[in-house]
Amino acid sequence: MIERSVYLNKLIKSKENGFPKVITGIRRCGKSYLLKEIYKKYLIETGVKESNILVLELDEEENSKYRDPIYLGDFVRNFCNNKSMCYVFLDEIQKVIPIVNPVLTNGEHIKAKDTDEDVISFVDVVLGLSHKPNIDLYVTGSNSKMLSTNIITEFRDKATNISIYPLSFEEYYNYVGGSTTDAMFEYMQHGGMPLAVLKDEDDKEEYLKGLFETTYFKDILEHNKLYKSESLDELCNIISELTGSLLNSKKISDTFKSVKHEDIDKQTIDKYIEYFKDAFILREARRYDLKGREEIGALQKYYFTDTGLRNARLNFAFPDEGQMLENVVYNELIYNGYTVNVGTFETIEKNKDGKSVRKTNEVDFYATKNKKRLYIQVSKDISNEKTMNRELSPFHRLNDQIQKVVVINKPIKETFDKDGYTIIGVADFLLRYIK
């Protein structure tokens, strides 16, 4: 069993808190497995009777009648009636079909249209069941209707949202063991999608490439009522190639035109990027003025939730080590609870003609967690003096007490340079330093 202790602890912490637990995340990242295997095992080991645990898989044909929200609510209440605390797992909750309030249809259960107003949906069922004092409710789903990041807004402040991501490097390494160098190379190449981790190399690459075509694009098209995927597909490829670059819709539009020799307007690009973010495929790091202490500008960097998915878009052909390393570091900082921005600040310097010019400096990441603050530069190697000077240059210009860290793709432990900056190998940084 692949341990997912961070998410298990979140479930334990929210246990019996009076709110439904809504488990969201990119498809195939292990949401159902977390509930039905890991969390269920924990409940039984801590004394919960198995007869007090209801696992209802709504995508199973034998449970199809419970896709009616009223029948579903009645079934769960009957199961829990006259029992002590029951733990109810509703898997594939998006299978529940919204119906028109039967009061308006002479008691008939009629599928609701988009234009109908008095509708009973899975949201009503979840909130209704969660009000029962002996029901601790957990719901998850795995298509576009449930994956949307805005699903939690339907529950307003009446639910606990737990977002699940693919395996972190820590989770991956705890499972595979061995050399951290070998593990990091494999993780950067193929990522941490749980089913991919369990496959051999050829099978995992086909699996990851297939996820986009058969799952993610299909969901995005369905959820957003799109009819063609060509532009969506090409935009995903372009962002894959530009992972970790400062982007805005104009720059992407220009790149799209140079690659496809077609125009795509900025509004469409912004809309499509939101679709990818909404399905948890992409996350963004916005720029932060390190001296003005505020987020600034329209430029941002995009990172894939999983490096294996990013590399699948490029057919695993000559992936850029620096981009993959930066993507991994960003994901791990988020996993460990940091708020992450791209650090930027301006300085006035002399050019070769002796004139004062304004220069924009960039730090890969400005990461904060509680009182901990870090400036982080990510580089595959700094053995070259020119590379070292380039990476450290922004640190020299920042006259503050925030810890400055250079993360490199080498198997070295934490050390310091002559200026007191931390130099650390990526494995030590991820498995220990940021904890």
UniProtKB/TrEMBL annotation:
It comes from the Bacteria. Pfam families: AAA_14, DUF4143. Residues 218-378 form the DUF4143 domain. InterPro entries: AAA_14 (IPR041682), DUF4143 (IPR025420), P-loop_NTPase (IPR027417). Residues 20-172 form the AAA domain. PANTHER family: AAA+ ATPASE DOMAIN-CONTAINING PROTEIN (PTHR33295:SF18), ATPASE (PTHR33295). This is ATPase.
